[in-house]
Specification:
With about 210 residues, this protein is mainly α. It is about 70% helix and about 0% strand. It is globular. The protein starts with a helix and ends in a 12-residue tail after the last helix.
């Protein structure tokens, strides 16, 4: 399958999932439709925007392809009104957020490899694309971003591992759809499991 088509599919999937997680968080903060839509678009487009800026790709992806913000906007409105009768908690955004994390991670790593970067830089770009939308969402909603909280569940680590799964399979000659699906599933599952079992990175031992 063509790389551009794969990236296009996962990009739209990621934008939709990111918009859903943004609306969920905005609804928890009791925002109106304008606030929820704004948070949704920030979540859906923020990571890819930073990636393109760091890679020197211009204009950024959603300016060149207005379908991305249109999809994000439409998903945000549908999600806002279809969930208005539900009581949303912090756990409500876990699944859409984990899905967006996996999709954006693949998108970032693939774009970086396409630009000819070193594999470590590609892994970093995958992580940046995966987590930065969530960082902006949390800041906008007056929350400390998940990745900056001490002793919190694994988040950026899941993205970093998922990026290496994609890069490793792509470099090993696997079909791109196989590398893409595997990376998304690993990132998604890693995030869900780490949340379920409260996995955390080890702390340095304190001196006695």
């Amino acid at each position: 399958m063509n790389l551009d088509l794969i990236i296009l599919i996962i990009a739209y999937l990621g934008v939709g999932a990111g918009a859903v997680s943004g609306v969920f968080e905005a609804r928890r903060k009791d925002m109106d439709i304008v606030g929820a839509t704004t948070v949704a678009l920030i979540t859906a487009l923020g990571g890819g925007t930073l990636r393109d800026m760091l890679l020197g790709r211009g204009p950024v992806f959603w300016v060149k392809e207005p379908g991305y913000p249109l999809v994000g906007f439409g998903v945000a409105i549908l999600t806002f009104y279809s969930t208005r009768l539900l009581k949303l908690t912090a756990r409500s955004i876990l699944i859409p957020d984990a899905l967006a994390l996996g999709v954006f991670t693949v998108m970032g790593a693939a774009r970086a490899l396409e630009q000819g970067t070193a594999v470590f830089i590609a892994a970093l770009m995958g992580m940046v694309t995966g987590v930065f939308g969530g960082v902006l969402r949390d800041v906008t909603c007056n929350e400390i971003p998940t990745i900056f909280i001490k002793n919190t569940e694994l988040y950026a680590t899941c993205s970093f591992v998922g990026a290496w799964v994609y890069i490793g399979l792509e470099r090993a000659g696997a079909q791109l759809w196989v590398a893409t699906v595997a990376s998304i599933l690993v990132t998604f599952a890693f995030r869900i499991i780490s949340s379920r079992f409260n996995w955390r990175l080890p702390e340095p031992r304190s001196q006695v």
